[in-house]
Model the fold of this input.
Amino acid sequence: MKSATELINDEQRKRVEAAVVAAEAKTSCEIVPVVATSSGRYDRPEDMIGLWLAIIAAITVWVMLPRQLDETGSWSGLPIYVGLLTMVASVVVAFIAGASIGSRIGWLRRLFTPRQQMQEEVYARARQTFFDKRIHHTTGSTGLLIYVSLFEHIAVVLGDQEIIDKMGQSFLDQLCEQLTDGLRQGDASEAICNVISAAGEKLAGPLPRTTDDVNELHDALVLID
Done:
């Protein structure tokens, strides 16, 4: 799975930042787009994949390795301690290999991670980012966060109080739906640019840019690896 900085190149980053500048030229809102590689640690998939591979390795050794048989005149089996050591070694190696695979392959990690857990982690990280990046601290309470988490394939759009008062939560939900529809097409930067432009157009009426408006937050795309 590509990290945020690997997925978004310099040209795409500049396009997103230009979209922020263009949108904020129409509205007093401060728009901050964020792309995160992942919003949670998710240790469970590594343990689960390692456990399943360890079980498969144990069964394989048990079936394939010849054992000492209580048959007169037979020497085809191996001493029992050899079989035990082989099984223990195979189980340990298989668990480590499974944990390593689980930490590297995105779709496999998602398969073993509950969807509810991923949603909770993304929403929690989005809210944390909303405060850490001081999006909640604008003078008019007009901060807007557009948050995309790549591993979970989940996006969140959060608005400060003035945006919710003027536009309602349904407006943020519509932006999030537009964003996720665009992300399904595969071009993250294009999807983010489109939703930023849409936000600027829709916010220009109820929250127009004033002549004395001050740009309180950097017009930058934030990438979190």
In short: The chain has a mean pLDDT of 87. The longest strand covers residues 30-36. DSSP finds nine helices and four strands in the chain.
